[in-house]
Design goal:
alpha/beta, 5-stranded parallel β-sheet, binds 5-O-phosphono-beta-D-ribofuranose
């Protein structure tokens, strides 16, 4: 079950609003990791953070770069499962290898979010994230904010397979979304 009512998870959710890189600050109770290649990705990835918070999912947000901090990326991916994480959301732009590197180090589901890039508007990020070799899967979402939101919703859907409370919240989310459309008058 999502531990949204415990003091511990309240702290985790509050902490998750900031990007945190100190190991001692990572709550052990995180079920989902939201990692990104640079602080410049946060404006987009804060939408994943907000969505997970809305569903009461304990999570952590960190900057980890496949290229600039390869040892950290390797350590993070290798220890993710034993730390109790169940899903990793990895965002990167340009030569976006972070999600692929995570998937290389863990059998946890890895969701990749391509960042919109200056040079190629995110097409480079999309192709780098999505074109994984057979055997090492990355579930790739849309470029930018829709991808960030959907990665979080996808993570909730994965967790909901064994957590009826989250499944119920997903149903309610969809119903509210539909009601909004039905009520819309132009
Ligand atoms: C990637 O390079 C990051 O994920 C980011 O999207 C992009 C640019 O990073 P900065 O130069 O802004 O730090 O690794």
């Amino acid at each position: 079950m999502a531990k949204k009512d415990t003091n511990k998870s309240k702290t985790a959710n509050r902490n998750s609003r900031e990007i945190r890189n100190s190991k001692s600050e990572i709550p052990n109770s995180s079920l989902v990791a939201v990692i990104m290649g640079s602080t410049s990705d946060w404006d987009t990835m804060k939408h994943a953070d907000e969505t997970l918070t809305k569903f009461g999912v304990p999570h952590e947000c960190r900057v980890i770069s496949a290229h600039r901090s390869p040892a950290l990326a390797s350590e993070y991916g290798s220890t993710a499962e034993s730390r109790g994480l169940e899903v990793i959301i990895a965002a990167a732009g340009g030569a976006a290898h972070l999600a692929g590197v995570m998937a290389a180090h863990t059998t946890l589901p890895v969701l990749g979010v391509p960042m919109r890039s200056e040079a190629l508007n995110g097409l480079d990020s999309l192709l780098a994230t999505v074109q994984m070799p057979g055997g090492i899967p990355v579930g790739t979402l849309a470029i930018g904010k829709p991808g960030a939101v959907n990665a979080a919703l996808f993570a909730v859907a994965i967790l909901a397979n064994s957590r009826p409370e989250l499944r119920q919240k997903l149903h309610e989310f969809r119903e509210a979304q539909e009601a909004k459309i039905r009520e819309t008058k132009l």
